[in-house]
Specification:
Length: 272
């Protein structure tokens, strides 16, 4: 009965983690570029109730005698399915169709990756402007440099091609590439990326190094869509169903604890 108490407790802890994950998904249902997460679980150790594996006649038993000792969180997986494209009135809103990520440089020089293409042209001094996110982190080009343009460009006249080329109209008002291309990067295992908040990711050993789509031949190139943002890939209906299932599982585990407690009370009240 003591085993069942602890098993029920581990089940409640696991379902609390499940609910926390679901709640975070629902909270970010309108976060641009957010990718949903799913909690996965696995059983804990098993205790052998009977070590003898043969019958009285010496024949092997067809089944074992083991009892589980609960559950624990195995991982919280990241789901990188494509989110819906949301129309935006901004010329510096960019959505990625495909597996690519934008790259940003942090204040300390670290490189962050994101699917959130809500950018803006910010003044960079010396009559220049640079493409940044809402926090002022510069967007990187295919060479890993910050995208900085001379101030004589009119920001509203700049356009972006599907492969990230920045264009400016010529005398005939035809967009012409200016030699700067927004970088997009992929990973062999994007599920191994580490989240650091603000829909930003950093590279880990599990994710592998960033693969530059412009210089890596064996990757399928992503498509950049100007005037759109990628919405969250959270499926609200599925999350609500998962929330109900997690709630019921939490209740059942709490019920196993109260049942075990009642059985222990009966055992303690036995008289000789």
């Amino acid at each position: 009965m003591v085993r069942s108490l602890w098993s029920g407790a581990t089940g409640m802890n696991a379902q609390q983690t499940n609910v926390d994950t679901i709640a975070n998904n629902l909270a970010n249902v309108n976060s641009v570029g957010y990718k949903a997460q799913v909690a996965q679980f696995k059983s804990l150790l098993y205790q052998n109730l009977q070590s003898v594996t043969t019958t009285a006649n010496g024949d092997p038993k067809p089944t074992t005698s083991q009892v589980g000792l609960g559950v624990r969180t195995a991982s919280i997986n990241q789901i990188f399915t494509q989110g819906s494209l949301l129309d935006s009135a901004s010329d510096t809103s960019f959505a990625i169709e495909g597996d690519g990520f934008f790259a940003l440089r942090g204040e300390d020089g670290d490189i962050f990756y994101t699917r959130n293409g809500d950018f803006t042209w910010a003044l960079a001094g010396n009559n220049r402007m640079t493409l940044t996110n809402a926090d002022g982190l510069p967007v990187l080009d295919t060479a890993g440099r910050a995208i900085v343009l001379p101030g004589n460009y009119i920001a509203s006249n700049l356009s972006i091609t599907e492969d990230g080329q920045i264009c400016y109209p010529d005398d005939q008002n035809n967009p012409q590439p200016i030699g700067v291309q927004i970088g997009t990067f992929q990973f062999n295992n994007p599920g191994g990326l580490k989240r650091v908040g603000d829909t930003l990711f950093v590279v880990t050993d599990a994710s592998g190094r960033a693969l530059n789509e412009d210089t890596t031949a064996d990757v399928q190139k992503s498509r950049i869509v100007q005037g759109y943002l990628e919405g969250s890939n959270v499926q609200v209906a599925n999350e609500m169903v998962n929330l109900i299932v997690a709630q019921r599982a939490y209740e059942m585990n709490s019920k196993s604890i109260t049942t075990s407690d009642s059985m222990l009370e009966v055992a303690n009240n036995l008289k000789r």
